Structures are given as structure tokens and as C-alpha cells.
Amino acid sequence: PILANFLHIMAVILGVFGTIQYRSKYLVLYAVWLVLWVGWNAFIICFYLEVGHLSQDRDFIMTFNTSLHRSWWMENGPGCLVTPVINSNLALEDHHVITVTGCLLDYQYIEVVSSATQIFLALFGFVYACYVSKVFMEEEDSFDFIGGFDSYGYQAPQKMSHLQLQPLYT
């Protein structure tokens, strides 16, 4: 999850840069990332609601079995009271066992609401990126160089006959 959030921050920075600098390629990259971001958040929703064969009991899905980390909202949710269990045989040497009680909303539902909000924002950002990218591409196509092919565009001033170059004979 930390890696996905880091990549999302980088994609948002590229999207903002592409908008400011009129770079449609960065906006297209941002739009492609948002499709992946929606997929990631849909997975998070399915994971916390335990859809299909997904289960929160399997730590290796989110942490690749590298830590005992759980959701931050598990301990810090609204109204949650965290009590450490002293002298527990279940704790590893660098971890402690806790009990969490009194939460107004379970952490799973907070994670689901957070991911649903991310999906909504990503859909809005996708539409924005596609529209602005289209506008930028149209502006690139309609640019007319001085003295270009358009008859209604810029017309170079006509030279006076006495200003025209005449060949010199010596």
C-alpha cells in the first residue's frame, strides 16, 4: 500500500505538471495511472469486505509476510480505546499485543469509505485529464506559423518597389 500511494503521489505531480506546462502526454500518463488506481482501490474494498476468497486473516496479501502491520485505523479509529496486554506470550520480541474497544465505526468500513472516495476522485480526475488532454492536442493542431498555410492568418507586409533588391552590375 505504501508503494501504491507513493506512485499515486508521483502520478498526481506529473498530472499537475502536465496541466501547467500544456503537456498532453503527461496527462495521458496520469489518466492511465488513474485506471490502475481505481483497480487498486477496488481491490482494497474487496479485501476489507472479504469478497470472494479474500480474507484479512492472510497477512501476506498486504504485507507480503514481512511484518505484522495492520490498518492504522484499527488503533486510531473514532472512539477507539487501545489497551496493551501486558506479558502476552503471543507477542514477538519487537511487538506488543493490544485490545481495541469502543470504536464508533470498525476500521474495515473506514478503509472501504476511504477507497470509495479515492475511486470517486480518480473518476473525476480521469474525465478532467481526458478533456484537458484533448483541448491541448487540438491547440497543437490548430497552431499557425507566421506566413503559414491559412489564408485568413497573418499576412506579411508587401514590399515597396524601391525596397526590393535589384541585381547590381559592375
Automatic annotation (TrEMBL):
<keyword id="KW-1003">Cell membrane</keyword>
<dbReference type="GO" id="GO:0005886">
    <property type="term" value="C:plasma membrane"/>
</dbReference>
<keyword id="KW-1133">Transmembrane helix</keyword>
<comment type="subunit">
    <text>Interacts with atp1b1 C-terminus.</text>
</comment>
<dbReference type="InterPro" id="IPR008516">
    <property type="entry name" value="Na/K-Atpase_Interacting"/>
</dbReference>
<keyword id="KW-0472">Membrane</keyword>
<comment type="similarity">
    <text>Belongs to the NKAIN family.</text>
</comment>
<feature type="transmembrane region" description="Helical">
    <location>
        <begin position="112"/>
        <end position="131"/>
    </location>
</feature>
<feature type="transmembrane region" description="Helical">
    <location>
        <begin position="29"/>
        <end position="51"/>
    </location>
</feature>
<dbReference type="Pfam" id="PF05640">
    <property type="entry name" value="NKAIN"/>
</dbReference>
<protein>
    <recommendedName>
        <fullName>Sodium/potassium-transporting ATPase subunit beta-1-interacting protein</fullName>
    </recommendedName>
</protein>
<keyword id="KW-0325">Glycoprotein</keyword>
<dbReference type="GO" id="GO:0002028">
    <property type="term" value="P:regulation of sodium ion transport"/>
</dbReference>
<keyword id="KW-0812">Transmembrane</keyword>
<feature type="transmembrane region" description="Helical">
    <location>
        <begin position="6"/>
        <end position="22"/>
    </location>
</feature>
